[in-house]
Structures are given as structure tokens and as C-alpha cells.
Recover the amino acids of this structure.
């Protein structure tokens, strides 16, 4: 002991826990509520009703016309809805951010509220308007005396596409509105003073700044459309069979749980693959 120097007290400086200890609780919760059920689904997909472990459920499902039809319908609906949401969302966000009109801030706030709506609620609203006994057909039959109205598209793939675009467009608008709020308006003023028209300003100034937000919103919409179930179910589109609907029909209607798990595994694999591609591309472009 050195005279006149206070010795450190070990009790005054307790040892801190390693950082990985704090990660254990959320990892355990994630494993319990997500990874374990997912592992059971994967295990069931390799367990035919005859017993044992086999690839026969995969061979049976992949060879069926219902699976190929559901896969093609799911992909084209997801891609079509994503493109529609990107175009419509970019236009609406552009108007809200750069075109002054009364109530613009209220509309922007409503977008946040719209994101909390369940998908079936938007579908029901469309059914009230364009359904077989909806308002549009009611006005038509009342004015013409016909037995039925001309609006019968909600039970077709185009009706599902319209419902998905209506519901998912705000998911593209929200990141776009955030990106536009950070855009330096002096760039727009300089471009306008140099004689650039509105279309050129949008193409040369606004669109490059909006590309990361468009990529983020579009990727989110694409993955959500691939897994959408409520919209297809509530539109009553009997001829529209998607992968989530095939999981439902195999598990609930046919009690074919191995086949349902196979379709679910394929759906998860597509979603995770698309997300991985998005992450790789976003890192390379610096988004």
C-alpha cells in the first residue's frame, strides 16, 4: 500500500455483463414464438401421412396443377400490385409534398392512420361500392331498370389487384413523404430558374432522391403481397388461387397438413429470398 494514495475499491466498480448476455432474452423469445413453430412446419413438410421422412410431399405438390397455378397467380398479382403502388404512390406523394392545396397536411396525417387499417376493411369498403349489390350497381340498376349492374370485376383477379393497390399504396407513400420532406427546395428553385419544366424537375431532381424510398417501399409491398390472404378471401374471387389461399385450402378444407406445410415453406423461401436480394442490392448501390 502506498501511503497517501487511496486504493481502489472493487465493490465501487461492479463488473459489467458481456454484451451478448443482453441479446439472450430477445433471441429466446424469437426462438420460442417464431423459429420453433417454423421448424415444426419444415419438419411436417418432410413427414407424409404414411409415416417416416420423405420428399414425397414436395414431389406431389410440385407436380400438381393447383400449385403451379397458385404460384403463377401469386407472382403476377404481387408484381402487378407493386408496380401499381409505385406509380400511384409516387404521384400522390408528389402532389401532397409539392403541390399546395387546402388540407394537404391532414391528408399526410391520414396516411399514417391508413397504415393501421386491416386489409379486409379496405376490401369490404370496395365491396360496398363495386360489389354485386354495391352502390355503383345499385345506382345503375335503379337508373336503367336492369336486373344487374356492370361492375362485376371484384370477384376476378383484376378486383384483387385493385384491392391490393388500394391497400398497399400508403406503404409506398410513407417513405416517399419522409424523403421529400428532407429534399432541399433550393435545388427545385435553381432548376426552375434555369428554365427546367415540371416534368424535367421531377425526372432530374426529385426522382433520383426518391429512388431509395421507392426501393424500400416497393420491396415491402412486394413481400406483403406475396403473403396476402385477407384480400383474396374477402373479395370472394373463387378463381383466384394464391399460395396463402392454397395453404388454407390444403390445411383447413382438405386436412392435408404435409402439403400445406410444403406450400408454406415455398412461400417463406420466396419471401426470404426476395428480402435477401433487396439487402444485397441496397448495399451495393449504397441505399
Amino acid at each position: 500500500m502506498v501511503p497517501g494514495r487511496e486504493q481502489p475499491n472493487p465493490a465501487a466498480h461492479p463488473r459489467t455483463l458481456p454484451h451478448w448476455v443482453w441479446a439472450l432474452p430477445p433471441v429466446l423469445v424469437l426462438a420460442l414464438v417464431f423459429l420453433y413453430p417454423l421448424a415444426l412446419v419444415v419438419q411436417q413438410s418432410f413427414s407424409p401421412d404414411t409415416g417416416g421422412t420423405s420428399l414425397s410431399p414436395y414431389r406431389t405438390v410440385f407436380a400438381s396443377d393447383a400449385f403451379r397455378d397458385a404460384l403463377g397467380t401469386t407472382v403476377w398479382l404481387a408484381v402487378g400490385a407493386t408496380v401499381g403502388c409505385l406509380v400511384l404512390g409516387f404521384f400522390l406523394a408528389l402532389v401532397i409534398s409539392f403541390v399546395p392545396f387546402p388540407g394537404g397536411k391532414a391528408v399526410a396525417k391520414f396516411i399514417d392512420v391508413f397504415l393501421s387499417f386491416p386489409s379486409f376493411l379496405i376490401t369490404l369498403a370496395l365491396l360496398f361500392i363495386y360489389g354485386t349489390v354495391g352502390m355503383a350497381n345499385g345506382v345503375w340498376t335503379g337508373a336503367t331498370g336492369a336486373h344487374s349492374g356492370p361492375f362485376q370485376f371484384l370477384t376476378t383477379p383484376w378486383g384483387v389487384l385493385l384491392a391490393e393497390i388500394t391497400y398497399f399504396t400508403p406503404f409506398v407513400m410513407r417513405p416517399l413523404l419522409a424523403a421529400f420532406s428532407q429534399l432541399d427546395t433550393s435545388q427545385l428553385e435553381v432548376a426552375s430558374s434555369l428554365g427546367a419544366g415540371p416534368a424535367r424537375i421531377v425526372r432530374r431532381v426529385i426522382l433520383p432522391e426518391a429512388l431509395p424510398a421507392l426501393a424500400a417501399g416497393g420491396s415491402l409491398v412486394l413481400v406483403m403481397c406475396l403473403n396476402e390472404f385477407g384480400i383474396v378471401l374477402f373479395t370472394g374471387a373463387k378463381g383466384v388461387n394464391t399460395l396463402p389461399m392454397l395453404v388454407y385450402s390444403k390445411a383447413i378444407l382438405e386436412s392435408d397438413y404435409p402439403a400445406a406445410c410444403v406450400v408454406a415453406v415455398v412461400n417463406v423461401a420466396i419471401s426470404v429470398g426476395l428480402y435477401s436480394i433487396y439487402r444485397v442490392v441496397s448495399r451495393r448501390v449504397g441505399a
Observations:
- The two ends are 58 Å apart (CA to CA).
